[in-house]
Predict the structure.
Amino acid sequence: METYEFVLTETPAPGVGVIRLNRPAALNALNQALMRDLMAALLAFEADPAIGCILLTGSDKAFAAGADIKEMAATPYVAMFMQASLIDGFDFSRIHKPIIAVVSGFALGGGCEIAMMCDMIVASETAIFGQPEINLGILPGGGGTQRLTRAVGKALAMEIMLADRRLTAAEALHYGLVNRVFAVEVYFAEAVKLAQKIAGLSQVAVRLTKEAIQKAEELPLHEGLEFEKRNFYLAFGTDDKAEGMAAFIEKRKPAWKHS
Ligand code: DAK
């Protein structure tokens, strides 16, 4: 397995790839090198046929406290605009496998935005979500104004981004930003269980389903329904559809071919 400077990777269970942000002295602040490592690790798991689900996590204390303010402070407008800036080449749409953010402690600014780029969020009870960019004289630039507003609604999104309101894990669960909340002692193990469940399914069916749900966020209903139908018919051409249905009828576990 490849090694990186600012992320650690492991496979704690069959089919489950874990990427752990690892810049503890800066609460996993997202500098450019870390972002490059993160994208490389994501692409490596995406390319690995043995991996069916990816977990993206930090430490118990911090998922990520945002983009690296010290690095950004030295970055003028044109450089931010032109250079390989923080988000350049950083594109979760290149990852077709499900990604679950596993969040404990601070998920602020770009940290919260990266969690929201994932397909699901599992949190520890200590997780804190926020978009405090306004305090720095800037605004969210990694999708916060769009994804958070879709997730929690306009009124609360305004308060979070204009008045630096931070959400506890319980609040984030209440408002639909996160899927599950667990005690800090068990949240990671619970996330692995969830990932294992997904990794045990047909990778083709999982991909077709993820794609269709993503379209629900972007397309008008009739176009989304059309997209879903195409993927549904496409599933009928797969080996895994034949296997899944045969296994049901024969009362046995399916042996997926991922084809
Ligand atoms: N950047 C750099 N260093 C950070 C950091 C950050 N975001 N957050 C924490 N650190 C560092 C601190 O400077 C400190 O380092 P030393 O001073 O010890 O060297 C160390 O981590 C521990 O932090 P604290 O001493 O502050 O720890 P506390 O427990 O007291 O406080 C805190 C934790 C998370 C509440 C606090 O550190 C904090 O407020 N951090 C900043 C949070 C923040 O404002 N985040 C938003 C950053 S702006 C882009 C798209 C998106 C973005 C950028 C570009 N493009 C499209 C290009 C995103 C922007 C942002 O995220």
Summary: Residues 6 and 34 are 5 Å apart (CA to CA). The first strand starts at residue 7 and ends at 13. The chain has a mean pLDDT of 96. The two ends are 25 Å apart (CA to CA).
